[in-house]
Amino acid sequence: MSATDPILLTTPLHDLHVELGARMVPFAGYAMPVQYPAGLMAEHLHTRTAAGLFDVSHMGQLRLVGVDAAAALETLMPVDVMGLPAGKQRYGLLLNDDGGIIDDLMFVNRGSDIFVIVNGACKIGDIAHIQKNISARCNVVPMPEMALMALQGPHAVNALERLAPGVEKLVFMTGGRFTVAGCDCFLTRSGYTGEDGFEISVHESQADTLARALLAQPEVKPIGLGARNSLRLEAGLCLYGNDIDTTTTPIEANLNWAIQKVRRTHGARAGGFPGAEKILAQLDNPSLLERVRVGLIALERIPVRDHAELQSMDGAPIGDVTSGLLAPSINQPIAIGYVKPEFATIGSTINAIVRGQPVAMQVSAMPFVPNRYFRG
Amino acid sequence: MTLKYTEDHEWLKIDGDTATVGITVHAQDALGDVVFVDLPAVGTSFAQKEVAGVVESVKAAADVYMPVSGEIIEINQALKDDPSLANSDPLGTGWFFKVKLSEKSQLDALLDESAYAQFSKDA
Question: Does residue A200 form part of some domain?
């Protein structure tokens, strides 16, 4: 590091990462483990076959408290917040007035509050945005004292239920309070890998104890941000800043599923969120879209990376790649990108330009690797 | 046979007027698991510092620079078929290509083993 680098924040698990031999890199203002000595490939495959522990304490946690909190949060997102039953979790999108995505997030109705998890790189702006817009209607309480980790993989539940009997009863996108290895935790059965697993919010003072207890389970190994990215891309999940940002709408991003019927045209609470006019028009009339997010699989074994130009087979520019890598689980290059809608049909072939040469890619359904969520 | 290094973390094994080129232990370690290499066509000539190939891990892609001017006389097909050789044996079976040197005097400015060790420690 040079003297001009800004001082990096550290998570409560920093000493543990160093002890485990992690390679630490700057990410979202934090020193974060990009990989451990096992390496990205082994970490990725371990998560797909056993269980991996991820430190995601750089992410922002906050809670919204007050009887009006759900209604207030609905004014910022095209999502059904008020109708979410207690104990359930949902995906949400903060929007700007043009319908662009300020951030994507997860929220849980915990009964006594709404618990929100936002991206690390966006959290300062998100919290300011939420406070500015709805703090008159509810208490917006940032939770910088909380650490966050994710335990992901087909054996995650086996490892966790040994420490906290009962967690196996949670189903995908639900949450609850549990004592895990003596630590008070709020758990949700969710994640960012496409696998079954849990996200665990715990006070920073207990984070190290909890992480060591989880790593002591035979199924569990520590996993870095490198594998986190390849796992989420195989699962077809967007990375904020790459695949979605303030210039993309949820409809362009093919996140229509995140907009429940009640907030759509003719819904009981239609509209009433930033950019609603534009977004509902795009939803009702897809011919208004100029581009749409698609999954791509290369037909040759040549990795196609972010920013690669996409062309029609006759050489016309039609879009670009926003995330791409060689998928460790399927040993094929995969990508997420945006194309003109007439090229978005699944099965059609387009070219990505890699070092000046066309690489044929097929528009593919996502996820690239089947999800294995536990739905009970 | 002499071993030389570049500041781009490549090594050259020099044998008369040809050199075998690969990436260093430090380079493969920084990249992580290598999943793809693109090598130049045999018979192509490059000037020193021109991009002659690519080496990619899951997380990153890096250009392979021509460490000296010359003509590609052989490429390592085994590495193309199994890019992980760049990790498991970077100084041996994980070599990239062989060059016929066109300006042998360029070798004088390359790093020797101890100079490279110091350089990669500071990098």
Answer: yes
- Please, are residues A156 and A48 in contact by the beta-carbon 8 Å criterion? no
A165, A171, A176, A179 alpha-carbon torsion, rounded to 10°: 20
Mutate to test the interface with A, among B35, B50, B54, B82 (most CBs of A within 10 A): B35
Find tokens 């895990």 and name the residue: A180
What is the model's pLDDT at position B75? 98
Q: What is the pLDDT of residue A5?
A: 60
**Residue A120 DSSP class:** G
Contact A240, A103 (CB under 8 A): yes
- Cβ(A64)–Cβ(A140) below 8 Å: yes
Position A52 in a domain:
yes
Which positions of chain A have pLDDT values less than 70? 1-5
Could A303 and B32 be called an inter-chain contact, meaning their C-beta atoms sit closer than 8 Å? no
Strand partners, A51: A220
**B2-103: which CATH number, 3.40.30.10, 2.40.50.100, 3.20.20.140, 1.20.1050.10?**
2.40.50.100
% of chain B with per-residue pLDDT over 70: 99
A371 inside domain: no
The string of pLDDT tens digits covering residues A235-263 is 999 999 999 999 999 999 999 999 999 99
Burial grade of A137 (CB within 10 A; 0-12, 13-18, 19 or more): middle
Total domain count, chain A:
1
pLDDT mean by block of 10 residues, chain B; 123 residues? 93 96 96 95 97 94 96 98 97 98 95 94 78
A16 touches chain B (CB under 8 A): no
Give phi and psi for B108, each to the nearest 5. Answer: -65, -30
Report the Cα–Cα distance between both ends of chain B, in Å, rounded: 27
What is the ipTM score, two decimals?
0.87
Q: Is residue A29 part of a domain?
A: yes
Distance from C-alpha of A289 to C-alpha of B112, rounded to nearest angstrom: 58
CATH number at residue A217: 3.30.1360.120
Q: Side-chain half-sphere of B90: how many Cα atoms within 13 Å?
A: 19
> Best of B34, B59, B63, B79 to disrupt the A interface by mutation (most A CBs within 10 Å)?
B59
- Domain of A227 in residue numbering reads as 14-57+145-234
Instruction: Choose the closest CB to B61 out of A230, A301, A303.
Output: A303
Residues of A within 8 A of B32 (CB-CB) are 35, 39-41, 226
Q: From start to end of A100-225, where are the E strands?
A: 101-109, 114-118, 139-142, 146-152, 175-180, 183-188, 197-203, 220-222
C-alpha span between A254 and A227 (Å, rounded)? 24
How buried is A53 (Cβ within 10 angstroms: 0-12 exposed, 13-18 middle, 19+ buried)? buried
